[in-house]
Amino acid sequence: MSARDPRRPGLDRRRRDGWLAAHKWLILRRLAQAGFLALFLTGPLWGWWITKGTLAASITFDVLPLTDPLMAVQALLAGHVLEVSGLVGAVLVIVAYALIGGRAFCGWVCPVNVITDFAAWLRTRLGLKEAYPLDRRLRLAILAGLLVGSAVTGTIVWEFVNPVTMLHRGLVYGSLFSAGAALWISAAILLLDVGVASRAWCGHLCPVGAFYALIGAKGLVRVSAVNRDACDNCMDCFTVCPERQVITPALRGAKNKVGPLILSRDCSNCGRCIDVCAKDVFIFTTRFHDGAGMAAQSPRDGVLQGEKML
Ligand code: SF4
Ligand code: SF4
């Protein structure tokens, strides 16, 4: 095997299966993120009103309300009275992410993920070391702070700085102020992630990710290190994973005592570990099926069958 370059994770997978196969889940996520944004933009741009509103609160085909549940909770704490459609929309979103796995929002919907993934790629290519490690519990403290802040001030605190809402307002309503603010906040997140700590924003600070992690802690869709015996310790999955601490228990933890399912609420179901692993260790599955049985087959058979399960 050729010497590994830690700045180029997934190189062996790309050499074996080609670029497309080695970026399958990444490509699907980008398509999903672009698709969600497009739903909101077809109305203002071409008059095709599929979804009206923004990710904060919207209605699709004039019948399906969807509300950002974190915004709804803050509004209630602030003493606002929500319309029934707003409450129904929040409940629908909570139920959906509770079933799927809450942090799927981070990997598959949130547009900020494109910036933070780019920052992580840049850090890896430049070989930057962790200069100022942050505590991942900070995001929970920030989440608690903004909930208390909303209750005390009577305002929806997070919406003053929420880059996602600002970006949507800028694009959907043509608000120059929101577009400018979104640009500045996005630039700050990029600088933070490149210059301060790897995955500083999504992995350590963002209260939205922390909130969705709590909602989807028992979500059905899980990644399993089903072929973990084939692992050659290349570390590529750890390099690309936005929450690398979630991999170790499933991959390395007392192999016969801890199952191969990645059960941490922080896993964003991004699928990058599946993309880059040349040993086909990981598959998507459900929390009720850890992929046991597939490991006895060839790794490639295992991953193909596992992907078909979804
Ligand atoms: S599971 Fe093992 S072989 Fe696969 S990318 Fe991770 S460290 Fe490398
Ligand atoms: S374990 Fe895999 S799917 Fe989960 S966050 Fe890490 S790279 Fe993404």
From TrEMBL:
Gene Ontology annotations for the cellular component aspect, listed alphabetically: plasma membrane
Keywords: 4Fe-4S, Electron transport, Iron, Iron-sulfur, Membrane, Metal-binding, Repeat, Transmembrane, Transmembrane helix, Transport
SUPFAM superfamilies, sorted: 4Fe-4S ferredoxins
Protein name in the entry: Ferredoxin-type protein napH homolog
An example Gene Ontology molecular-function term: 4 iron, 4 sulfur cluster binding
Record-linked Gene3D superfamilies: 3.30.70.20
Organism from which the protein derives: Magnetospirillum gryphiswaldense (strain DSM 6361 / JCM 21280 / NBRC 15271 / MSR-1)
Keyword ATP-binding: no
